[in-house]
UniProtKB/TrEMBL annotation:
InterPro entries, A to Z: MetI-like, MetI-like_sf
Alphabetized UniProt keyword annotations: Cell membrane, Membrane, Transmembrane, Transmembrane helix, Transport
Compartments it resides in: Cell membrane
Annotated TM spans: 16-36, 81-102, 114-134, 165-186, 223-242, 270-292
Protein name: ABC transmembrane type-1 domain-containing protein
Membrane topology category: Multi-pass membrane protein
Length: 303
């Protein structure tokens, strides 16, 4: 068979799309699939960088230790649940309110939208530094405002207790995350025909009925997808927590990703930290499947 014939067989209408997608597939394989597979393999090994014995296969021992013995990991899981639930709940509600406001006709609407969405562009480290300064016990703006208003009698140390530190970080992350919800919700709001609202007004439907029977059903898929993405991203946040409290005080703000980082930096144990990452990935996959099923993503309505 001639080389020309072979070339014609390889490059034809059916194979061209796959050839064009091949670089993307190679990129995904090299930078996503291989690291994931390597992490799964290392989770079944005794793999400590500073251990002269080298690497050895230990099966599920790392997982048994995590699930049955590691109380700090259990605490980090509970803290992660509080962290994710608090952030996503606040960001989604406030993001919806902001989107509804920005969807109204107003002067300088483009400029106002740009200013409103700007916190999303700020890096996590800068957010943690900025809000840590505002929370400062000695020079923080929050203590100063509350003292002037008579809300408190003395300055508060925001990061001295676990619940207060967790609340402070959730507020900071909420400030950064609201624009993500607002952008997505606003784009979905703008696809809803005004004629539907006019018909509802003629039928006597008030603002709440229009919201729950027109706005929310029409935005359902956007709301579900945005909540799911933000839940996954919030669970994986490290920079803000690590730069602010590093999981303290007394591990009360320690989440699983921060615990993975702290454990690896302290022991250089690839195997044990890989097992944590695998468990966290399994939790996210199971949650995603249940959430999509429960919210009927892709179907017409939540109601």
């Amino acid at each position: 068979m001639s080389a020309k014939r072979i070339k014609q067989m390889i490059i034809n209408k059916k194979t061209i799309p796959y050839l064009l997608l091949l670089p993307a597939f190679l990129f995904i394989g090299a930078f996503m699939l291989y690291p994931i597979g390597n992490t799964v393999v290392m989770s079944t090994q005794h793999n400590v960088m500073i251990d002269a014995k080298g690497t050895s296969f230990i099966g599920l021992d790392n997982f048994k230790k995590l699930i049955l013995e590691d109380e700090v990991f259990h605490l980090a899981l509970r803290n992660s649940l509080v962290w994710v639930a608090g952030n996503v709940a606040l960001q989604s509600v406030l993001g919806m309110v902001l989107a509804l406001i920005l969807n109204q006709s107003m002067r300088c609407r483009g400029f106002i939208r740009a200013i409103t969405f700007s916190p999303w562009a700020v890096s996590g480290v800068i957010v943690s530094l900025m809000w840590s300064f505002m929370y400062s016990e000695s020079v923080g703006v929050f203590n100063d405002i509350m003292l002037r208003l008579g809300i408190i009698d003395s300055r508060i140390s925001w990061f001295s207790t676990g619940p207060r530190a967790m609340l402070a970080m959730i507020i900071a992350t909420t400030w950064r995350g609201i624009p993500f919800f607002a952008i997505n919700f606003l784009s979905s709001l703008q696809t809803i025909s005004e004629e539907m609202y006019e018909s509802a007004r003629v039928d006597g439907a008030g603002a709440l009925k229009r919201f729950f029977y027109i706005t929310m059903p029409m935005m359902k898929d956007t709301v579900v997808l945005t909540l799911l993405l933000r839940t996954i991203w919030t669970l994986n946040i490290v920079d803000i927590i690590y730069s602010t409290t590093a999981g303290g005080p007394a591990n009360t703000t320690l989440t699983v990703p921060v615990y993975i980082m702290n454990t690896f930096m302290g022991s250089l144990d690839y195997g044990y930290t890989s097992a944590m990452a695998v468990i966290m990935a399994i939790i996210m996959i199971v949650f995603s499947l249940i959430f999509i099923k429960a919210t009927k993503y892709g179907k017409e309505s939540l109601y």
